[in-house]
Amino acid sequence: MKALDALHSRTSAPRLTDPSPDTEVLKNIYKAALRAADHALLRPWRFLTISGASRDKLGELFVQARQGELSEEEEQKLRRKTHRAPLIVVCISSYKQHPKVPQLEQDLSAGAATQNMLNAAHAQGVGAMWRTGSMAYNKTVMKGLGLGDHEKIIGFLYLGSINGNRKNVLMPAIEDHFQEW
Prior knowledge:
alpha+beta; 6 helices; NADH Oxidase
Protein backbone atom coordinates (compact mmCIF):
# COMPACT_ATOMS: atom_id res chain seq x y z
CA MET A 1 0.00 0.00 0.00
CA LYS A 2 1.29 3.46 -0.84
CA ALA A 3 2.13 5.65 2.15
CA LEU A 4 -0.52 8.33 1.51
CA ASP A 5 -3.19 5.72 0.79
CA ALA A 6 -2.40 4.09 4.13
CA LEU A 7 -2.44 7.39 6.01
CA HIS A 8 -5.71 8.49 4.39
CA SER A 9 -7.53 5.19 4.92
CA ARG A 10 -6.36 3.98 8.34
CA THR A 11 -9.05 3.15 10.86
CA SER A 12 -9.00 1.07 14.00
CA ALA A 13 -9.98 -2.58 13.78
CA PRO A 14 -11.96 -3.31 16.96
CA ARG A 15 -12.42 -7.05 16.32
CA LEU A 16 -9.19 -8.99 16.04
CA THR A 17 -8.38 -12.67 15.99
CA ASP A 18 -5.58 -15.15 15.25
CA PRO A 19 -3.22 -15.35 13.59
CA SER A 20 -0.84 -12.80 14.95
CA PRO A 21 1.27 -10.94 12.36
CA ASP A 22 4.24 -12.98 11.17
CA THR A 23 7.84 -12.17 12.10
CA GLU A 24 8.65 -10.08 9.02
CA VAL A 25 5.45 -8.03 9.31
CA LEU A 26 6.11 -7.43 13.03
CA LYS A 27 9.66 -6.37 12.28
CA ASN A 28 8.30 -3.74 9.86
CA ILE A 29 5.83 -2.52 12.48
CA TYR A 30 8.55 -2.27 15.13
CA LYS A 31 10.98 -0.52 12.76
CA ALA A 32 8.29 2.09 12.03
CA ALA A 33 8.13 2.93 15.74
CA LEU A 34 11.84 3.62 15.78
CA ARG A 35 11.45 6.30 13.07
CA ALA A 36 9.08 8.50 15.08
CA ALA A 37 9.79 12.19 15.56
CA ASP A 38 12.34 12.31 18.36
CA HIS A 39 14.08 15.53 19.43
CA ALA A 40 17.72 14.86 20.35
CA LEU A 41 17.38 11.17 19.33
CA LEU A 42 16.58 10.17 22.90
CA ARG A 43 14.33 7.28 21.87
CA PRO A 44 12.18 7.93 24.96
CA TRP A 45 10.13 4.79 24.62
CA ARG A 46 10.17 1.09 25.08
CA PHE A 47 7.67 -1.65 24.29
CA LEU A 48 6.55 -4.89 25.91
CA THR A 49 5.03 -7.58 23.70
CA ILE A 50 2.41 -9.82 25.27
CA SER A 51 1.01 -12.92 23.57
CA GLY A 52 -0.06 -16.47 24.34
CA ALA A 53 -0.33 -17.32 28.04
CA SER A 54 1.19 -13.96 28.96
CA ARG A 55 -2.19 -12.43 28.09
CA ASP A 56 -3.68 -14.48 30.96
CA LYS A 57 -1.01 -13.08 33.30
CA LEU A 58 -1.85 -9.56 32.14
CA GLY A 59 -5.55 -10.25 32.77
CA GLU A 60 -4.73 -11.38 36.31
CA LEU A 61 -2.67 -8.23 36.80
CA PHE A 62 -5.67 -6.15 35.70
CA VAL A 63 -7.88 -7.96 38.22
CA GLN A 64 -5.27 -7.53 40.96
CA ALA A 65 -5.24 -3.79 40.19
CA ARG A 66 -8.97 -3.63 40.96
CA GLN A 67 -8.86 -6.07 43.90
CA GLY A 68 -12.01 -5.93 46.00
CA GLU A 69 -13.80 -3.49 43.67
CA LEU A 70 -15.36 -5.92 41.19
CA SER A 71 -17.90 -8.70 41.16
CA GLU A 72 -16.80 -12.11 39.85
CA GLU A 73 -18.56 -11.35 36.56
CA GLU A 74 -16.73 -8.02 36.22
CA GLU A 75 -13.42 -9.74 36.99
CA GLN A 76 -14.05 -12.27 34.22
CA LYS A 77 -14.87 -9.46 31.79
CA LEU A 78 -11.65 -7.67 32.73
CA ARG A 79 -9.64 -10.87 32.20
CA ARG A 80 -11.18 -11.29 28.72
CA LYS A 81 -9.98 -7.84 27.64
CA THR A 82 -6.45 -9.18 27.27
CA HIS A 83 -7.73 -11.68 24.69
CA ARG A 84 -9.08 -9.06 22.29
CA ALA A 85 -6.13 -9.80 20.01
CA PRO A 86 -3.37 -12.39 19.70
CA LEU A 87 -0.69 -9.76 20.39
CA ILE A 88 -0.65 -6.74 22.69
CA VAL A 89 2.17 -4.22 22.57
CA VAL A 90 2.42 -2.13 25.72
CA CYS A 91 3.73 1.26 24.57
CA ILE A 92 5.76 2.99 27.26
CA SER A 93 7.12 6.51 27.47
CA SER A 94 10.50 6.26 29.20
CA TYR A 95 11.58 9.76 30.20
CA LYS A 96 15.24 10.64 29.86
CA GLN A 97 16.64 13.74 31.57
CA HIS A 98 17.64 16.31 28.96
CA PRO A 99 18.14 20.09 29.25
CA LYS A 100 16.28 20.85 25.99
CA VAL A 101 13.67 18.09 25.75
CA PRO A 102 10.89 18.27 28.37
CA GLN A 103 8.93 15.24 29.50
CA LEU A 104 5.82 16.26 27.55
CA GLU A 105 7.77 16.29 24.31
CA GLN A 106 9.14 12.83 25.09
CA ASP A 107 5.62 11.54 25.84
CA LEU A 108 4.47 12.92 22.48
CA SER A 109 7.39 11.17 20.80
CA ALA A 110 6.35 7.85 22.37
CA GLY A 111 2.81 8.54 21.12
CA ALA A 112 4.20 9.20 17.64
CA ALA A 113 6.04 5.87 17.78
CA THR A 114 2.76 4.18 18.68
CA GLN A 115 0.95 5.93 15.81
CA ASN A 116 3.72 4.84 13.42
CA MET A 117 3.08 1.23 14.47
CA LEU A 118 -0.66 1.66 13.80
CA ASN A 119 0.10 3.02 10.33
CA ALA A 120 2.64 0.30 9.56
CA ALA A 121 0.17 -2.37 10.65
CA HIS A 122 -2.57 -0.92 8.42
CA ALA A 123 -0.19 -0.58 5.45
CA GLN A 124 0.49 -4.33 5.71
CA GLY A 125 -3.14 -5.39 6.16
CA VAL A 126 -2.83 -6.08 9.90
CA GLY A 127 -5.69 -5.11 12.17
CA ALA A 128 -4.76 -2.76 14.98
CA MET A 129 -6.48 -0.92 17.82
CA TRP A 130 -4.89 1.54 20.25
CA ARG A 131 -6.56 1.36 23.64
CA THR A 132 -5.70 3.18 26.81
CA GLY A 133 -8.26 3.03 29.60
CA SER A 134 -7.87 3.01 33.36
CA MET A 135 -5.38 0.11 33.42
CA ALA A 136 -2.82 2.29 31.61
CA TYR A 137 -2.80 4.69 34.56
CA ASN A 138 -3.01 2.15 37.35
CA LYS A 139 0.06 2.00 39.63
CA THR A 140 -0.38 -1.74 40.28
CA VAL A 141 -0.36 -2.45 36.53
CA MET A 142 2.65 -0.22 35.94
CA LYS A 143 4.58 -1.89 38.74
CA GLY A 144 3.52 -5.39 37.62
CA LEU A 145 4.79 -4.66 34.10
CA GLY A 146 8.11 -3.47 35.50
CA LEU A 147 7.81 0.24 34.75
CA GLY A 148 10.17 2.59 36.52
CA ASP A 149 9.09 5.77 38.28
CA HIS A 150 10.15 7.77 35.19
CA GLU A 151 7.87 5.74 32.88
CA LYS A 152 4.20 5.75 31.89
CA ILE A 153 2.00 3.66 29.63
CA ILE A 154 1.03 5.50 26.47
CA GLY A 155 -1.36 2.76 25.44
CA PHE A 156 -2.00 -0.88 24.66
CA LEU A 157 -1.68 -1.63 20.95
CA TYR A 158 -3.76 -4.68 20.02
CA LEU A 159 -2.59 -6.45 16.82
CA GLY A 160 -4.07 -9.35 14.90
CA SER A 161 -6.09 -10.44 11.92
CA ILE A 162 -9.20 -8.42 11.21
CA ASN A 163 -12.36 -10.26 12.22
CA GLY A 164 -15.26 -8.72 10.29
CA ASN A 165 -15.56 -5.52 8.33
CA ARG A 166 -13.51 -2.42 8.95
CA LYS A 167 -15.28 0.66 10.23
CA ASN A 168 -16.38 3.04 7.50
CA VAL A 169 -15.17 6.32 8.96
CA LEU A 170 -15.84 9.37 6.84
CA MET A 171 -13.02 11.82 6.29
CA PRO A 172 -13.86 15.09 8.06
CA ALA A 173 -13.76 18.31 6.09
CA ILE A 174 -10.24 19.74 6.13
CA GLU A 175 -11.51 23.31 6.55
CA ASP A 176 -13.22 22.30 9.80
CA HIS A 177 -9.82 21.67 11.37
CA PHE A 178 -7.34 23.93 9.57
CA GLN A 179 -7.54 27.70 9.41
CA GLU A 180 -5.11 30.26 8.13
CA TRP A 181 -3.75 32.52 10.82
